[in-house]
Write a structure and sequence with these properties.
With about 200 residues, this protein is mainly α. The chain contains 5 helices and no strands. It is globular and about 45 Å long. The chain starts with about 70 loop residues before the first helix and ends in a 23-residue tail after the last helix.
């Protein structure tokens, strides 16, 4: 339900999700803009003073070992929505504009932003971001990744779109700015276990 800001940190989407980079620790807190210290700009931020690693473009050849992509998935599932957005931002910037890879990363970024807006009780922002995520995924699906086991960068695009429809559907169908009931669990970014 979106009825106003939710106190505290965002909750995990999938607490017991498989970790893709278990050796990498999670940040000290889940950043909520306007509530917690900005992770990079505030001296109390969990990533203050840390140098960002050079971004590498994501591709069908490297997704299984792409640290930012995999870490973003781990962060997202544990409710680190702002942080997952940041993890995917570098590879997105390195992607060929309007490529399938750029569309997928932008869809994941927008879905994370929608989750942050839900946490903040902002139905309009959540609706805008989640619809943009769905549109990006639909573009990938239209290029032949439309189910029957077809995955792109380890993701079953059709399944992810269906999860989004179940979860965000009430939000998409309503013009309300609040009191939207979201009954299903938030979309999970399930990477193919055996993609090789």
């Amino acid at each position: 339900m979106i009825s106003g800001p939710i106190e505290g940190e965002p909750r995990p989407v999938w607490r017991h999700a498989p970790r893709h980079l278990p050796q990498v620790n999670f940040p000290a807190y889940r950043h909520v803009p306007g509530v917690t210290p900005h992770p990079e700009r505030n001296e109390q931020g969990h990533s203050y003073g840390l140098k960002a690693s050079a971004a590498v473009a994501l591709s069908p050849e490297n997704w299984r070992k792409h640290r930012a992509y995999l870490y973003g998935v781990d962060l997202y599932h544990q409710g680190y929505f702002w942080e997952s957005h940041e993890a995917w931002e570098g590879p997105w910037r390195e992607s060929e504009p309007d490529s399938l890879e750029a569309n997928l990363l932008q869809a994941l970024i927008r879905n994370s932003a929608a989750q942050l807006k839900i946490h903040a009780g902002n139905a309009v922002g959540a609706r805008t971001h989640s619809l943009a995520a769905r549109w990006r995924l639909a573009r990938i699906r239209a290029k032949g990744y439309d189910g029957a086991g077809a995955s792109f960068l380890g993701l079953d695009i059709s399944d992810l779109i269906e999860q989004m429809k179940r979860y965000y559907g009430p939000l998409w169908e309503s013009e309300s700015r609040q009191e939207i009931r979201l009954r299903w669990r938030a979309p999970r970014i399930q990477l193919a276990v055996d993609a090789g």
